[in-house]
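Reposting from the mailing list since nobody answered there.

I have sequence plus structure tokens for a pair of proteins and want to know whether others read the tokens the same way I do. The first protein:
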Amino acid sequence: MLRPQPILMVAALLLGAALGAVAMLFVRADTSAGTGQGEERRILYWVAPMDPNFRRNEPGRSPMGMELVPVYEGEEPEGSSSFVEIDPRVVNNIGVRTARAQRAEFALTFAAVGYVQPIDENTSVVDVRAPGWIESLRVAAVGDQVALGDALFSIYAPEIATAQSEYLQALRSGRQAMIDASASRLRALGLTQGQIDALAQRGRATLQTSQFSPRSGIVTEMSVREGAYVQPGDQIMTIADLSDIWVRVDVFEDRIANISAGDTVRISTDAQPGRIWTGAVEYIYPTVDPVSRTISVRVRLENADFSLRPGMFVSARIDASPRTGVLTVPREAIIRSGQSDRVIISVGEGRFRPVRIVTGAEANDRVEILSGLEDGENVVVSGQFLIDSEASLQGVMLRMAPPGETAGPAAPSDLPPSPPIAEGTGIVDSLMPGHGMIDISHDPIEALGWPAMSMSFRTLDAVSLDNIAAGDRVRFSLTQSDGNWRISVIEAADAHQVDHESSGQETAETDRPSGDGDGQ
């Protein structure tokens, strides 16, 4: 007997493959038809299923934990226009002017204060290497100008006098090793080679030894007078060359990121009005002053006439390196509020649209735009506040949030909240009566298409929660205020039902004939 099973299996496989190919054709045809022959529909934004005012520019979840749904181009909800339309004659009468948002070179200038100080490498400290007494002080006071090699003072130091005598004895002995050792000791005690040679020619030790200036400059500090006893470690005086100086400018920490070495700095001082010194940022210090919250920037300047003096306060203007391709708008176009900044965009034919923006730095009466605008868009620079008020009255402000932002509350207005839109019932989970906040696990609300869930609500200012407690079953009405759902009426449903039942029972007992009367 023949076994037909293999033939049937092969036939079934062939039939399945044919059906799969036909199905793929249908799927491709359906996909092509649904996308306009391969063209995908453009998604404008994502919205919360229960709150169309909550928008984002990418998929995610709403504050209630629900998946956001996309809104495609051409499928915007009816009545969701975010434009304000004004008659062109009215636009002309109120003097509306526009300017273009454009990308260009953007250079920042920062104003700061600083002070003059000597350059460290051009400053020398004068001290002694052997204890002794100042016999003759040739520098009269701080501020005296000295030259390299000038005698500053003479000192009587017994140790130096003894070393001179030992050096003369070594010379008389003729032993070179002793001569070199005693000469090295004199140099270690602060004598110059010229002083040692003069000692050898003179042939006798002196009780006083002169101290010479190590550089040309100005005496900026002096702590001794004639007859003072000094010893190693005492700072006798400081000499600074002020032909070049440092200006240390204090810059607030939020601006330091825009400053780099080499940026131009212009220095001025009230002591010499109209005069400008120009230098460049030489160094940016790595630490922040914990009190003033500033970071120091160092500038080197020529000071040949010594007009800039150490300790003098100066004003500085730092021209940061310009950035290219920065999107900017005129400063007057920005409408600033406590929570956000916005501009009014003109789209032509008397149509305007408010847009939230994120601003950056300001320079030369223009403001950097970080997000919210595109290059080439026209923004209103005159009359924008009237248009902004009109947008607020029409409710456009509730829908003006750009993708990536939650629509914030509308601009303040005197309009009352809208009347109740939906009613619901539920169980109170928790509440804060003093703050007008309540959490309710509510039943489905058909008017809004909401399923049963737990939500947090705020009440209108006039609504009291004093008679509501956690665990109560409540009835409530919802209305929209400032773009949010708020409770306009709330009452305990159980208490209302008990009062109604009690009232019904009392009515029934009143209408019922008396049993005694029937018996009689």
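The second protein, same order (residues first, tokens after):
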Amino acid sequence: MYQALYRKYRPKSFDDVVGQDVIIKTLTNAIQNDKVSHAYLFTGPRGTGKTSIAKIYAKILNCEHLENLKPCEKCTSCVQINNNQNIDVIEIDAASNNGVDEIREIRNKIGLVPSNSKYKIYIIDEVHMLTNQAFNALLKTLEEPPSHIIFIFATTEPHKIPRTILSRCQRFDFKKISNKHIVERLKHIAEIENIKITEEALNEIAVLADGGLRDSIGMLDQAVSYSNEEITLKDIHDINGTVDQEEIRALLKAIFDKNMVTILEKIEEYEEQGKNIVKIAQEMIDELKNIILYRNVPNFFEEKTEFYENVKDNVNNTQIYCYIHSLSELVGNMKNSSNNKILLEIELIKMITEETNSVPIQEQVSVKQTPEKIKETPTKEQEEVKEKSVEKSSTPKEITPKKIDFSSVLSEEAMQSLNELKKIRINNSLVAVSQKNRNAFKEKLEDLKELLMDPDYSKLISLLFDGELKVISDKNMIFVYKTNLLAEAFNLELLSLEKVFLEKFKEQYRLIAVDEEEWNTIKTEYNKNKNNYQYQEETIDVPKIFATTSNNVAKKNMIDELFDSFVEYEEK
């Protein structure tokens, strides 16, 4: 049976380990100086050698014929460990054995001496998955273990481990493997396996692996299956759904030139080719970063790049920083979305249509262009004008957010009904709060983003996604907004929003919105009296609140004003 390359070339001694020199030196010195600890914690990204080093360390500690801190690979202990048959080296996957009963079983067995080894060693992988009760059961054992017991914990998320456990372990933080070391290791494997691969393909694998050596070897294994001849850069892009650097630069050039047609055509092409939209967005961020670096530290690059030279006058640094920030947020949102293509299209359209606060490079006045003006001595009148200007600018004017009068939209009676409705829906949303349902429905909400491109729905859906779904209980939901203005705008559009939900999800939902200040008060009250909440029947005639035509006209004008003038301020 074929053995995967990452298993075949898993390190069997410290000499085979790549990129963790400090950790190797510390562990070998501990053995030499007879200062072996009873508990270790190995933390770091996946594929950086945590479990491999744990097994090698266990092998060295139990080897019967150790020479120069290298396991002999021939004694009973070494052979059994290599074949996963050593009953004194116990590997436990905490992801599937995370309960208190499993830990109690370990605690009951640690008193037994090793069968044919010096130490009984427990290697617990993904230890952060243990429950709090399991950690508590482990605590006493970890504090005072028998002399023949050693624990080695491995995790990618050390922040989830209780401090009481952390304080009883020697912690080793594994770093990402450098691209240089990954390429060297892949070349070594390629030579042994007689794999033909180009230098560009090796470098691309190293970049995509993001410091994970196991991931890079797995990628090489996949490329071998994909390509019948020499593995090229194109093969790596095909396998991972990425595109080459020139394609990313062409997309960025279209953004800088505000060429909407080219942008949408390219994204459509990526979708048809099955490209990974998330990785394309990440590659755009990397290339934007390179543009900034080239402008500020040109010597960092070995040779001049024509693309970086050509874009210097098309976009300024502030705009690039804005692009990087927007795309970084987009990548985070994509992880929970089912339609990344639409998200990328919308984000790029926003990037090229929204005005930035920066001054375009063409409009900036160069000092070299007007040296004679700088050297001119100002007149007395100019000095007086300058002093008045400085005095005026030094006293900041008080500004307040532009206000919108909601009384023009609803009558006093309608406002009272809306506030009563708000109380009932908040109460009913909190009766049976479900975090699981909330997370599931937030994924369903992503489908509504398709309507952002529809002029009939764009403002409504944009308003919806300016807030966050915080609570869902049965068919009642609470959305939270940063400002009261947005929350009230949401509530005024209740009927329209609920109609969209009904059309899209085929169920009738009852929605309500609050601002962050009110939400904090609601949370505090709920935590004090959560057991006192009971379902209330909703008897208010919601359509009647927004019944009159004049009110609907006023509401529409107010919503339009909200979107068109939200960032305007009025001076006092």
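Reply #1 (J.P.):
I read it the same way you do. The mean pLDDT is 80.
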